[in-house]
Amino acid sequence: MRFPATARQLLRYLPVLPAVLLLLVFLAGPVLWAFHASLTDAGLTGRSARNPSWVGLENYQRLLTDPVFPLSVLLTVVFVAGSAVLGQNLLGLALAVLMRRARPLVSAVVGTTVVAAWVLPEIVAAFAAYAYFSGDGTLNQLLGGLGLGRQDWLYAFPMVAVMLANVWRGTAFSMLVYRAALNEVPAEVTEAAQMDGAHGWQRFAFITLPMIRWSITTNLMLITLQTLAVFTLVWVMTAGGPANASTTLPVLAYQEAFKFGDIGYGTAVASVLILIGAAFGLAYVRLLREPRP
Amino acid sequence: MTAPARTPGSLPLRPAAPRRRRAGSAPADLVLLLIGACFLLPLLWLILASLDAEAGHELRLPDRAGLDNFAAVLTPELLLRPLWNSVLLSGGTATVTVVAAVLAAYPLSRYRSRFNRPFMYTVLFGTCLPITAIMVPVYGLFVQLELLDSMTATIFFMATTTLPMAIWMTRNFMEGVPVSLEEAAWVDGASRMTALRTIVLPLMKQGLGVVFIFVFIQAWGNFFVPFVLLLSEARQPAAVSIFSFFGQHGAVAYGQLAAFSILYSLPVLVLYVIVARGGSGSFALSGAVRG
Description:
The complex is a heterodimer. By secondary structure, chain A is mostly helical. Chain A has a domain of 196 residues: MetI-like fold (Orthogonal Bundle), CATH 1.10.3720.10. Chain A has 16 helices and no strands. In chain A, helix 5 packs antiparallel against helix 6, helix 5 packs across helix 13 and helix 15 runs antiparallel to helix 16. Chain A is globular and about 75 Å long. The two termini of chain A are 44 Å apart. The longest helix of chain B has 35 residues. Chain B is globular and about 75 Å long. Chains A and B meet through helix 2, helix 5, helix 6, helix 7 and helix 8 of A and helix 1, helix 3, helix 4, helix 5 and helix 6 of B.
């Protein structure tokens, strides 16, 4: 009796249904709809909003000729590489290492401060960062106090400002991951290396780092995906400007769709971003499927 | 936001394990305090400006510190209604997410099937999709289905974006409840769902609390999703109203902006401390990051 067994098996999995439905309607649906809409001239208002017509690959051809798109891809790469892969990752690791050497009270206070920037709602963090980098903000007060030149950071160096802001906002995650990872490195191993005459840096580079390499890879994957999707911070601080100088891909997709009312072209940009995210996502899933060392 | 593993967890309030090393080296303290000061400065502005009726962008001690800014923003239409909307939105999102995640996690943790692994990895893949990228298509979808400006639809969408991570966390917590406890109930003739409700859920209360708070904090802080999907002012949560009030009205009362920000941030700070103090913080982080 094969059929009843299968039926019972299916029935057992019935509780998964609400989750599957939600994921299909609100996650898979929009993704598929994005690829479809990116092949039309769908607009925000007017005739093309109600009856979008099929334009094939026109939106994607436009991406290739639009000078803003390659700039936006470049800015996104710079943003992710600078603020996540280098900034958050290295600073998070440094903090985690220092916290093991510092007095417990100092590391608790500093840890709480770093985490506070991360727990705050993103819009609040964005306002605070905006005030910090603005013309008469704290950073310029500091530079002025040190006798260095003041700059209008948000206009002259918008990418530097949003990258530093993203490091400030997101380093806590890397710090927490690395604190947990370093706690799992058995003290015996590093002590044995110390007995063999390995110095601090040697122990760190040849013993500790290889032992936490799984955490490093996971962390890099996750912060890359998080940073790829950052919108609010950039939007509040610079709105992508001046003159597209900080228009990362999420900002470009939003602007094309909602500011210029071109949903078709906006979804084409969004589709590229989804594909980049999907590629990283697949790599991440493959990584986790491999047995841990 | 998308943030696959932006888990509120493991605030290092106490040193994790007893250490054999001598406590603290001065150079490490100094460097750490310097970095900490850099992280503190932008937050310091928020606090000082909120107490300063004539606050601007610059960091300064108020001439006359007071709570005028707080009094000014504590009005129904400016702060209370948006905060109430935030409560509805985040509470609704967290409830829908936890219910769907518990239901899904139960068969996935209790039955062995070829279906489990591919399903869990597909879900994990779902945590990786950049949600900001799908906001334009979601807007299009909501227009077509005439769901725009609907609180309920926004709740279901936000629940879906946090659902993949919630399923992983819930399943990991559920694996911690031994099956043998349920088997006794099955013998007594209880159905699977009764066993789930009366035996498994009470035993994983703490884990469920962590998932609920985790989703609530994410939804509370989310700006982009309600910004795109909720159009009328009467439905907008605090994240959006703070932006439309202060971000678009040109001449800004910075002191009030800071006061509003602090009142709006307090609930998530409190919730975070609850999770971190409960000791389930690193627990949550491992529940989220590990398979």
